[in-house]
Amino acid sequence: MKRLTLVSGLLFLMLQTTFSQVQVPGNCKPVNLACDYLVNPLGVDNPAPRLSWMLNDTRRGARQTAYQVMVGKDSLQLVAGKGDTWDSGKKNTEEILITYSGEGLTPFTKYYWKVNVWDQDGIQSSSDINCFETGMMGMENWQGAWIGDNRDINYQPAPYFRKVFDAKKSVRSARAYIAVAGLYELYINGEKIGNHRLDPLYTRFDRRNFYVTYDVTPQIQKGRNAIGVLLGNGWYNHQSMAVWDFHRAPWRNRPAFCMDVRITYEDGSVEVVSTERDWKTSSGALVFNSIYTAEHYDARLEQKGWNTADFDDSQWSGVGYRAVPSLNVVSQQVQPIRAVETIPVKTLKKLNDTTYVFDFARNMAGVTRIKVSGEEGTVVRLKHGERLYDNGRVNTSNIDVYHRPVDNSDPFQTDMLVLSGKGEDEFMARFNYKGFRYVEVTSNNPIVLNENSLTAYFVHSDVPQKGTIHTSNALINRLWWATNNAYLSNLMGYPTDCPQREKNGWTGDGHFAIETALYNYDGITVYEKWLADHRDEQQPNGVLPDIIPTGGWGYGTDNGLDWTSTIAIIPWNIYMFYGDSKLLADCYENIKRYVDYVDRTSPTGLTSWGRGDWVPVKSHSSKELTSSVYFYVDTKILANAAKMFNKTEDYEYYSALADKIKNAINDKFLNRETGIYGSGVQTEQSVPLQWGIVPEELKRKVARNLAKQVEAAGFHLDVGVLGAKAILNALSENGEAETAYKLAVQDTYPSWGCWIANGATTLLENWDLNATRDISDNHMMFGEIGGWFYKGLGGIFPDPENPGFKHILLRPNFPSGLNQFEARHQSPYGEICSKWERKKNRIVYQVTVPANSTATFYAPDNVEGERVVKLEAGEHVLELKLKR
After folding, report:
1. What keywords are assigned to this protein (predicted)?
2. Beta strands in 36-170 (DSSP E)
3. Which helix (H) or strand (E) holds 18?
4. Torsion of the alpha carbons at 486, 489, 494 and 500, rounded to the nearest 10
5. Is the pTM of this model over 0.90?
6. pLDDT tens by residue, 403-442
7. What burial letters (b/e) apply to 831-846, b meaning 16+ CB within 10 Å?
8. d(CA 741, CA 815)
């Protein structure tokens, strides 16, 4: 480890090292191979999948000078160094993300692949062999029919389906491909297949449907086999009533499915068992299911063994054909939703023999599992909520405000279990999730419960964690944890606003939190899916709804730029964090249509189309100012993308348009003498700073005015969602890091820390703990602070000129009052660490730059000495002297 000392303008290189500088073959190895950001995926439909890797090489200056990718159908040939499907040849480049360019991929085929790399000394090393397996790769390859139970959309009991078949030979391999309009659970010979929940993911069902692939080789046995499928409504057949008009969705219908089970026998022959009219169907114990409210389960109606071969289905009915929901059935190549964490009860209060209240001591999205015995016919209700009344019972009044029940049969977030009277019954919702901390269990007959009777499961898209924060300030640590809890609670195959009251894919919430998301989690597959939803929902004129997906709600008067800029901002951030331009390319024409629409309707360059600074503390900002800034942001992204994709005319046109918008904003709103935008409130000062509107020569002046506003407020916030996104960045990136830090760690109202100081374990929807509206306790729209820790304190930024952290910009800040800070982020090249410790008037700053990457350190204003230091791959220590 080399130590760099910055003192009085001199840079001293101290020849201390803990790494051998002798080049040893094998020190460099390609690792973490992925296909379209998944490890060894099944059911790949992409004819040109992206292949990526990183280098495991801790030597200083480690880098790749060349690569060779080989793909083949025979793993033994790859071991021997031959790829019969594609051999890229030796490419003299540092690239670690490439697109498959070999012979055409065929459906239902397993491909093996490996990477050879050459390090900085020209020494070759090889990866382990990975694989990917193609799926349908086209609608024409399905053999099954879409079937249903012949019931209408208002029939409440869930449909169960089954089929028995014979496997006459020994099985080599078997795959199940299942496409569902609605939700499902799949069983083979009584065993549930997979650990996903809420599959398939929510899409615009009449324009795109997902299928999921499973390896079911262990479950298929020679001889008789049974397949069982249970379908849920999900967002496809929304039976609960709410203001969002879910029940009016144009695709709404009774759930249906199509499935092929493709069996390859040891002799090489192939048999496909598919959905046809020879399947049977019945109702059962799941008598009601709503993804929005809850599930009702009557254990007296259970048909034991319904998904096994020996079950007597003579009383079951025939199935019927159903039309294909859309002509675009594609593979779900997305990190799945799972029950990721099991959370035990923290405290239990028994109010009487029929009422118990369980506290899990943290807010979450998920489900609960109850085990309970009682008299046959006893109705047990499990009411899930975030708050308690003064009498200790669960209060859902802050989250049920948009529920519009027609009667008392569908209470909000309240599961119902009817006991069988045959010993212990067990129930957990299959096709629903809730937002809660507390669960009130009531019954119409006495029951006995204890702390082990109820278990909670934190359910969310199971995205790998990519970042961690640890500091000497307990409030920061807790706030970072709560932010992540809120983010994960609101990631269900698309980002949502809250996991209880709405479950809507609000576009604004999605892009306000995008940097927090990408610093902390590997969410690219979820965002690629969600931006495909955007493309499905966009009107021909370019307009987008402000909730996506939507059954029709959201094309109102305010679905404008500050919200629906997701179409540009998220693809751009994916490009910044991953160095992958595919999503930006996929959305290019959509961004262009969107910007063109605003250009047509706002010829001056100024627009008021948007929702404005939602849920402000007290001061209101000009909607024309903030909406116009987002118009500039989208146009600038479009111009940058046009340049990248060699669209010269577009680049020239949209660059000029961006300049026009910026000038129009500054001409109307900026007082160049005072350095104040608009009326000078926090949001009006911070939004132009955050998004590059402020002229370079006035940035410090505008930032100083913003800092004065914050200081005058006692280092408290006076912003809504747009200001919350901008304010910390606007301060810390423009010479006011001390003010940004004091604002970030404020623990009295109004502030982020106020929530934590009052016991919050997630982020809230309102700064005011006593607010009477906008009062969800698990919301993500104020979540930018979780990304700011990496930027404003750790100083880790992607370089727009070398995205994906190929080159890292390090701009840390060392505010007084914070003694230790550590941020780690797993970039596409490996882990970046930015870690510092205060030692009297010095900072010891430790940096890890991953192999095949470089970095530039920029010293903050309160540090003496060299302002800029170039860093190669490896570990570095910089000793920095603080100004007095």
Report:
1. Hydrolase, Signal
2. 50-56, 64-72, 86-87, 97-99, 110-119, 124-126, 130-133, 147-148, 160-167
3. none
4. -110
5. yes
6. 999 999 999 999 999 999 999 999 999 999 999 999 999 9
7. ebbbbbebeeebbbbb
8. 7
